Amino acid sequence: MAKPFYPESIAVIGVSEKSDNLGKNIVKNLLDFQYEGKIYPVGQTEGYVYGLKIFTSVEQITSKIGLAVFLIPAKAVPDHFEACARKGVKRIIISSGGFSELGEDRTDLEERLLSVARENDIRFLGPNCIALINQDNGVCMPFVRLSRFPNGRISLLTQSGGVGLSFIFMFSAQNLGINKYVSLGNKLNLGETDIIPFLEKDKSTGVIGLYLEEINKGREFISAVRGCTKPIVALKTNTTVTGNRTAKSHTAAIANDDRVVDAVFKQLGVARVSELDDLPPACKIFEMPPMKGKRIAIITPTGGYAVILADLCEKYGFTLPAFPKGFTAYVSKHVRAGVINLTNPLDLGDMFDLQMVANTVMRALQEEEFDALMLSWIYMRDTGITIDSINIFPLLDKMLKMIPKPVVLSMVGNPADIAQLQKTTKYPIFTTPEESIKALKILYDFSTSAVSLRTQEPVIKDIDEAKIAKILDAAAAEGRKELGMESLDILAAAGIPTAQTRLAATAADACAAAAELGFPVALKIASPDILHKTEVKGIILNIANEKECTDAFVKLTESVKKTSPGSKILGVHVQKMAAKGREIVIGAKENESFGHVVLFGLGGVFVEVLEDVALRVAPIGPLDADNMLSEIKAKKVLGAFRGMQPADAEAIKDILFRVSTLVTKFPIIKELDINPVVAYETGGGCLAVDARMILG
Amino acid sequence: MAKPFYPESIAVIGVSEKSDNLGKNIVKNLLDFQYEGKIYPVGQTEGYVYGLKIFTSVEQITSKIGLAVFLIPAKAVPDHFEACARKGVKRIIISSGGFSELGEDRTDLEERLLSVARENDIRFLGPNCIALINQDNGVCMPFVRLSRFPNGRISLLTQSGGVGLSFIFMFSAQNLGINKYVSLGNKLNLGETDIIPFLEKDKSTGVIGLYLEEINKGREFISAVRGCTKPIVALKTNTTVTGNRTAKSHTAAIANDDRVVDAVFKQLGVARVSELDDLPPACKIFEMPPMKGKRIAIITPTGGYAVILADLCEKYGFTLPAFPKGFTAYVSKHVRAGVINLTNPLDLGDMFDLQMVANTVMRALQEEEFDALMLSWIYMRDTGITIDSINIFPLLDKMLKMIPKPVVLSMVGNPADIAQLQKTTKYPIFTTPEESIKALKILYDFSTSAVSLRTQEPVIKDIDEAKIAKILDAAAAEGRKELGMESLDILAAAGIPTAQTRLAATAADACAAAAELGFPVALKIASPDILHKTEVKGIILNIANEKECTDAFVKLTESVKKTSPGSKILGVHVQKMAAKGREIVIGAKENESFGHVVLFGLGGVFVEVLEDVALRVAPIGPLDADNMLSEIKAKKVLGAFRGMQPADAEAIKDILFRVSTLVTKFPIIKELDINPVVAYETGGGCLAVDARMILG
Q: Which candidate among A185, A425, B564, B687 keeps its CA 20 to 30 Å from the CA of A370?
């Protein structure tokens, strides 16, 4: 994968002397960024650009070509692609648009490229992109002219070239160095799943920023991120119906279920940002040392910012411990007027001596009570208040080296001044309090959990695979794709506690089964044709005695004949009524991109009305299960609630692991819905009461 | 209220020749901003500042003083305040800090100021503020030196001086003119409730921006905003426990219930922003004509922005209708290459001719299908692509004059370039897509609903006041502050349908009552000492016959004797079981600042676990009731749900109006909780089943 970033020579296909030729810009960028390899412009007509000869075909070039970048009409691409293959070029970038993003009829073009690539062991980027940049060697191939920008530890992968360009502008303006930049486009061959593993090994890259409109190879994405120890920050768009209509015609992007994407990012410790503007600060915060706890000390020059920051800390789960006595004694000795409360946030208000501010910051930093410090500052010039904010940067730099805790500088003031400071200062400057705290949360999450999330071992439970296979095979032999109550047998074989159930063909059988199981029981219509029993009035609950049981049998079979005529009726399932507990829902469903996704939620309105569910891609690990239980909005219900002790979390997680194992080992199960599972108080376990399954 | 903004002369109290004197800055600001009235510096020592004589007391000044601004230690303020009173000064600004924000012991100081003000008919701003600015006459009194900044249609009221200063910087940097600026500080006398009505009349003010840490006079705030026809944009902080601890020591702010604040803003069409950075664009959007519908046409130069904008439109409830045929025909005639999809958003990609872009915008604007247009643009210089974005502004300006629809320009690129453009261009420039769409949503909401919300007449229902007074008086006579089932009698008198209920002292009475009402019934323990009947196991539901009724009576009275020993038991309430329907909760509670707040939510877990409630301050109007029903997260339950027809919205709203009327006419009711109200299908009405009340 290193090759496209380190080509020994580059052929630029699509260059002419014409003034509006865009291919020429690629050549100029390579020259301006001081690429040291050979550059071979190729075009339809001979000539010269920037002192370089334009060849009319790659065959004319006698030397070896490390990489070819195309900027020619889509229909001309395959021929040139084949010419490159013949010439032995192994890395190609197709910047041209006009492929499947314009419609299904263009997929032929793409198939041809893919087949030539396969036959000739070629890897290619694009089409429909603006190529890549590597600041380590001056490889800069966008067809938009660029000025030199700072090199640094951040590498960006972006599906949209235009959005990626904006990021170059935005990052550079904040003196945030971009080391490598890749415009992914339609991702026909190379995508983020190929490049992330390369960036993990790349010594120049410290932070990976992503702009994605789709994750089309979800499983590979998960593997790529699991192998990565570096911070990854992602902006993923195309989250709505309208967005997808648009993305399809932009980068031919598929529509991901955004709840799954969100779950995957949580599962992998990928920091997801929601707005364009959030990406630079989210990458910038990694210029700071790790943040290992939640405790922040805040120093501000004005009470309003103290209030805003205090609100934000609570909102983002940080704490503001009181300052230790030694610190408050120190500050009160040096404050000008007596109008300061020595609380955290500390409103320094009247302290206009910058050295003194720096000393105060340093003093606070030494306190073990704090894991990070935020210095909120108003940058003022010519305000009649003696302050020269600019001198604070060397002081802060020195501190960071002495005490490795994050010292976040949040600076507001005249935006032009702040922009100028950001552009010229090495020390990272954040602007609004909101920006700073959001970024700090990203640092905290990465510092405390990302690597353990990515490297957790999945929990694979011992399940009776032979028995499960037998039930599934039987269904397959009968051509049945949907399983009702026999799903419970599969779950039982997977080690999940299920309500005791008997099939009864007659009312008398039902009564006998009920007597054996013990009243009260439930009767549920047994038919291979009926999956949604409630909809056809196929369930009667709380049957207390034989008479009710006989009546229920008759009522059920007759009502179902009416509501679902023609269904084959085997009789009823007699099930011992489960004792009362919390009803939860556990399930799994195959996702086109990511494979099987495990679902957890509370029963009833929580799932049905509020879609309050937690998702994770199978197989799940111990942290995933913990997080699923704690991330639902209604998690309060799982604690001590309405006179009940907390729910048996271990038993719930055990079912999650078993479901995760089941669908991992039997991917033929496309959909599994255990609803309800009754969860009892801690130690009391769980009971799966009803379930259905769809097979592939 | 105009006086502090238009003083004929100003005394600045707290000026000296010393280099670190801050009072001097006030004088300099007045001179720099070309205040034309007389300026009288007053200090402890005679001398001169900026050529003006320093008086040592206000008494020395022979001419009339229109306004005095104080910047002296808190303890010295009262004496000078009295001196000003003697001198006949009617308007004072106390910039000094050190009052109740530092602790309860300083309230004496404040009491003294208030009493002198009362006796002498003085109105004053502050303490603990940075005074005010009026750009119409050069009154500029902050003690921080300011450079001249643009005048315009926006006036800002801000509780924090520091945050307010940042806004001056931020607004000015975007060439957004601020006309009046008021730093409110501790709001001991004058506050936003006094100044909003003045700004409504003020011809120079077109938009009002607020930064508030508290709304301490909620009723007055509501009146002030109801009388205002101008857009109001508010950033309200101090929303958390931590924030409140901090705000108390900053501006001595009280803690508002943020859910109530949020409801009040919705009720009044005040646009609430959540971040500091959101205020300038939210004010700026009002430079545009009103937006009268939801339909947007989007034109972008890159597909990535098209995707982002499409997502945002869906998220914020806008629609993107297809372009009419005439328009697409026009565009396809003028596009350079065939790589464009003629969809909305329109990715112009290859169209680099700016006049052509402008023509396209103009053409789209003429289409009746659209209520607003967004032009997303990447500003590029020296990129090798022929584009000169700067020339677009005059074209856009011309368009707005011809067709009064919003044309929002969202411009990304090098932030320094964008900042420079914003600073120098009259046409409002927004940056990220998120910023633009959020601002447009604010414009849309104001254009379509703010004035009707503010001017709606409350719905006052005819209720049996005499009967209600009688029940309340009886309770008062007995010294009871908490009412249980008799609350239902009050509700019935207020015209709210309630479940039929009988008090029964014995089991036999209970059976007789049940027979009269008709089985099944519920028995509920009747005791003036027991308000929460469920907690003491004081309710038995679904009693089917006389035997069950007798058993239930015994069981109830005995169990309550155990769970609530010593309670006076009157017997039981026998209540006809309500037919099944949706359970909802309706209530009201007095709020310290805003008065009575009416609450609506769904019963059970929705309120208990998810706090999914809608609030409005009483008395409520028709739009309020509609919005309450539609703003709960689980509103789906009110529609066709689980085989039920939609709930009877008219009947629910009728109860809301009656509760609103009840607490408005009987403010002695501090808290009212009707739980549950059973709501039936449309036309079926509602039934209040249980209720409790707390009296003041």
A: A425
